[in-house]
Design goal:
Number of helices: 9
Strand content: 15-25%
Distance between the termini: 11 Å
CATH superfamily of the largest domain: Thiolase/Chalcone synthase
Largest sheet: 5 strands, mixed
Helix content: 25-40%
Strand order of the largest sheet: 1-7-6-4-5
CATH topology of the largest domain: Peroxisomal Thiolase, Chain A, domain 1
CATH architecture of the largest domain: 3-Layer(aba) Sandwich
Bound molecules: acetyl coenzyme *A
Shape: globular
Structural class: alpha/beta
Radius of gyration: 19 Å
Number of domains: 2
Oligomer: single chain
Order of helices and strands: EEHHEHEHEHEEEEEHEHHHEE
CATH class of the largest domain: Alpha Beta
Length: 315
């Protein structure tokens, strides 16, 4: 499988750290020094579906493919517009795509998980051209009264068209099930048979646990991927890591001993947009002209589960 084109979309509305300080007991200094985040985009009157459509359209135009040519749509999201149908179906309806479409919830690792599913579909001959979209509305997920979590998140969509080829060399995952560290729940429904249903709960997170997991696992996964392909850290042009915290990115980068230029980031502008962070960053790099044919990339994410995903890709 190879990547043929990318797209991305951010909501119009920008929320700065100073904006948050108008209704939370926080300040720009705390947020920016602990996380690197200075602003994030959040949905107001736009829908997640419209963001996903814009990102998907951009990826299809960039790849030079039409809706009729796409034969599978995979969407990664932790919270689609509706529980049913899948967000993939809404994107198909908007873009004139008629094929199977499904949503995947792999937490922040969702984009790499969707790439892996796409690779399997292509390898088994079930699809030739696949639209992969990561669309996330964490502003609906976060508790806006909890300063320890809501300041971290933003909304975004990123997309890629993938097809047959040999650009994606390796994809791997790890998992260590721990729901206590990072968890949010859906409404309990109104079944008359449910006994003491748990009420809906906004995102709850043990920040320091996630931090330690992210740094140790991202470094380990990247180191192992490099070693297994006889690569040195400097043989990779760009490391595209899940944008959750600038300090996590810096800790992994310094352990790998690579220059800052190889660790592009946009977290200062976008915040953590879950599975959308990597495809949005990829699209920004692509459109800036930084990705030359033959560029070697490592994608790496950690997320709810807890799980991690790593991909070795040649552009
Ligand atoms: N503004 C001001 N003070 C705050 C804020 C805030 N926004 N949030 C917390 N504080 C306070 C706390 O109340 C605490 O005060 P206290 O000492 O009086 O009790 C103090 O700051 C320190 O709080 P900690 O939680 O210990 O702060 P920490 O240094 O761990 O930073 C953070 C918190 C930024 C969340 C960090 O732990 C982190 O980034 N962890 C990783 C989180 C992450 O990446 N999550 C990913 C989310 S989902 C995903 O992408 C998979």
């Amino acid at each position: 499988m190879k990547l043929l084109g990318t797209g991305s979309a951010l909501p119009r509305h920008c929320v700065t750290n100073d904006d948050l300080a108008t209704f939370l007991d926080t300040n720009d200094e705390w947020i920016s020094t602990r996380t690197g985040i200075r602003q994030r985009r959040v949905l107001t009157d736009e829908t997640l579906q419209s963001l996903a459509e814009r990102a998907a359209r951009g990826a299809m135009e960039n790849a030079g493919v039409t809706g009729e040519e796409i034969d599978f749509v995979l969407v990664s999201t932790v919270q689609a517009e509706t529980l049913s149908p899948a967000l993939a179906c809404d994107i198909q309806a908007a873009l004139g795509i008629k094929c199977m479409g499904i949503d995947i919830n792999g937490g922040c690792t969702g984009f790499i998980a969707a790439l892996s599913v796409a690779q399997g579909l292509i390898a088994s001959g079930q699809a030739r051209l696949i639209l992969v979209v990561s669309a996330e509305a964490l502003s609906r997920f976060a508790d806006w009264t909890d300063r320890s979590t809501c300041v971290l998140f933003g909304d975004a969509a990123g997309a890629a068209v993938v097809g047959e080829g040999d650009g994606v060399e390796d994809i791997r995952f790890t998992g260590e099930p721990r729901r206590d560290v990072l968890c949010a729940s859906t409404p309990p429904g109104n079944s008359p048979f449910a006994i003491n249903p748990a009420p809906a709960q906004y995102l709850k997170m043990q920040g320091q646990e996630v931090y330690k997991f992210a740094v140790s696992h991202s470094f380990r996964d990247i180191r192992d991927m490099l070693a297994d392909h006889d690569l040195q850290p400097e043989n990779v042009d760009f490391y595209l890591l899940h944008q959750a915290n600038m300090r996590i990115l810096e800790a992994v980068r310094t352990r790998l001993k690579v220059e800052p230029e190889r660790f592009p980031h946009n977290i200062e502008r976008t915040g953590n947009t879950s599975s959308a962070t990597i495809p949005v960053l990829l699209d920004e790099l692509n459109r800036s002209g930084a990705l030359k044919p033959g560029c070697r990339l490592i994608l790496n994410a950690f997320g709810a589960g807890l799980c991690t995903g790593t991909a070795l890709v040649t552009w």
